Amino acid sequence: MKAIGFNQPRAIEDVHALEDIQLDLPSPGPRDLLVAVQAVSVNPIDTKLRQRPLEQPGYRVLGFDAAGVVEAVGAEVENFKAGDRVWYAGAVQRQGSNAQHQCVDERLVAKKPDSLGMQEAAALPLTALTAWEALEDQLGFQPGQCEGKNVLVIGGAGGVGSIAIQLAAHHFGLKVITTAGRETSANWCQSLGAHHIVDYRKPLLPQLEAIGCPQIDGIFITQNLDDYWATACQAVAPFGGICAIVDARAPLDLNPLKAKSARFSWEFMFTRAMFATDMQRQGDILSQLSALVDQGKIQSTVSEGLGTINAANLKEAHRRLESGGTIGKLVLAGWE
After folding, report:
1. Model pTM?
2. Where are the beta strands (DSSP E) in the chain?
3. pLDDT (tens digit, 9 = 90+) per residue, 252-275?
4. Cβ within 8 Å of residue 94, ≥6 positions away
5. What would the mean pLDDT of 322-328 be, rounded to a whole number?
6. Cα Rg of the chain, angstroms
7. What is the dihedral sign for C-alpha 254, 268, 186, 113?
């Protein structure tokens, strides 16, 4: 089968950074689905993993977001059959979705929304799982119980921010404040449901005061954690929370949170699959998300399609993500 992989870390400008390769068709394990991949999207974790040394020789296939059709199922699969149209984000420890066929544990998978094509569907799983887990599992928000509560999303125009805004506003019922700089980014965030935009290039605390939100119940940091940490500690409300998905460059001082009885937590979408812990939770989230999409409450965050799934187009997606400033998700679909 066709696939795109790399066999050692290289800068994206290197001609061999990502290569078109041929691999054997994988065989599904007992709980696996064998999926014919029809569309994928690219996330920052793809670019980070591409620059890390491999743990064993051979080619590593990246890619986590995928939409496709089930071709075969393992002996113990309970909820899917051949022909099902599915979406998922997979597991970081397994070969990824940048291949014509991929094996994925059924507990991480759901049937994709009927109202979305494969390309539009592939934009959502990883970022939606990240945002949903952050808002509900880490920050403690519950749908129908968020009246009068607010959330600040740092990095609203990015892939995670774009779906976090929608989920927070349209599913959890929160007042959503988000950071943006460019007019195009601000317009994008407002179109997704953000109630207020604050300019990340200016001090945030005076802007939060000006919009009547000096204290924030939940702060979701999707980029530049160190740069926002002091401000987040000042802005978080008593008994509120801060959640981050990006590494800190230096140790974080948690002491400012003590007086407020506020909490800090990490969100890493791959934890469940890495430790085989409550994996079905992610399939259930994607099923709920699929219903929300078909009800018209959530829209795809695809911003641009970059063509078919091949090394050249994936390299362009990696290059854009590494350069910063992308809005929404970059998606590839189909095989030549």
Report:
1. 0.96
2. 2-6, 19-22, 32-41, 60-61, 66-73, 85-88, 101-105, 109-111, 150-154, 175-180, 196-199, 216-221, 236-244, 263-266, 302-305, 329-333
3. 999 999 999 999 999 999 999 999
4. 103, 104
5. 90
6. 20
7. negative
Distance CA 299, CA 96 (A): 25
- What is the token pair recorded at 298? 């959530």
d(CA 221, CA 138) in angstroms, rounded, equals: 12
Name the residue ranges covered by the structural domains of the chain.
2-124+276-333, 127-266
Contact by Cβ (8 Å): 200, 181: yes
2-124+276-333, which class in CATH? alpha beta
Nearest to 113 by CA among 292, 336, 329, 297: 292
Q: What's phi and psi for 171, nearest 5 deg?
A: -110, -45
Angle at alpha carbon of residue 175, lines to 174 and 176, rounded to 5°: 100
Q: Point out which residues pair with 154 in neighbouring strands.
A: 221
Among left, alpha and beta (phi > 0; psi -120 to 50; other), residue 173 is left
Q: What percent of the chain has pLDDT over 70?
A: 100
CATH architecture of residue range(s) 127-266: 3-Layer(aba) Sandwich (3.40)
Distance CA 186, CA 194 (A): 9
Report residue 248 as tokens.
Answer: 């800190």
Residue where the block lists tokens 């539009």: 120
| Strand bridging mode 263-266 / 19-22 | unpaired
pLDDT at res. 324? 85
pLDDT for the residue 90: 96
Structure tokens belonging to residue 164: 């976090």
